[in-house]
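Try it yourself: sequence plus KG4, in.
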Amino acid sequence: MRILGIETSCDETAAAVVEDGKKLLSNEVATSIELHKKFGGVVPEIAARSHIEYINPVIEKALEKSESTWENINAIAVTYGPGLGGSLLVGVLTARTLAILHNKPLYAVNHVEAHVYANFLTNTSLPGYKLPSKSPKFPLLALIVSGGHTQLVLFENYFKYQVLGKTLDDAVGEAYDKVAKILGLPYPGGPSVEKFAKKGDSKSIKLPKAKMHDKYDFSYSGLKTAVLRASQAIIGKDYSFPSYMLASELSDAQKADIAASFNHVAIETLVDKTKQACDEYGPKSLVIAGGVAASPELRRQISDRIALNVEYTDIKLCTDNGAMIATYGCFAHKNSLVAADPYTIDISPNIKM
Ligand code: KG4
Ligand code: ZN
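Structure, out:
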């Protein structure tokens, strides 16, 4: 069974073909990230316009690379939320049109949930991918950490899950992006903060961990403000000193110490709660999904503190991609989930898991 997955929720236009929920046959991504860099974050109108430009060539290439024709494709899966409205519309309208034209079932996919499914891929003929040796087992604990989401979810089976906790304000990836902005480092913040953090002392600045009413919930807005206040204090200014002027006053060594201290606490908070959930629920597998799964600090702290053997998927499958949508589509098709009506299915920018 072959599924075409289409993803356009943010700034990546992506399409992929996956076989039987296990084998990655193609994975094409065109990103508009370079166009957003000078604004320090994704500009929705620019992202939507780029999707219109890229979507057809990306889908054609995904079909071609997988050596698929429309006859080989059993169904289409597309992200319908959450994400940027204009961006989601491009993917959903394209998928609707293709489903009607080629008479294929269409599955509407929740982007955040689909991030977890990327971890089921264990086989590929594509060069340059490092995939897990086996698929994760249920019950499965998933830490979903991206630019828009931070949550701990316990999956009893495919499509059967319980959200244990989520962020009440900023997502962890968003905190990286905002801290990068304070330090004058390029977007996306994760990799650039990480790079500076390597040269700094993670114990040099004391940053707080949020205390939550529900033990598995997260909060990252206080940590981001604490980084801002610490940066102002380091250069001897008070809270009124504007954040956009800080970067030019901080030395590289000071930036490195701030980045290292933030990086350590941001990740430690994730691992504290993940470890607690592992102890309480005893999952057979732990999966880390979403862009922040690329963090080497996260991987290091998990292997230091959690006894489960975690197999990470390729970084190209941690950040936004079409393969995770196609994999979700494979299991949806296999488990006879209700397909969407291609004539009426709409986007759902604020949908939650
Ligand atoms: O999953 P993703 O590609 O897009 C969303 O659905 O949001 O995640 C992007 C996020 C960005 O906020 C980026 O700063 C973060 O993932 N990220 C990282 C790293 N690489 C990317 N965060 C921490 N460390 C990294 N190495
Ligand atoms: Zn994502």
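One thing you can check immediately is this: The first strand starts at residue 2 and ends at 7.
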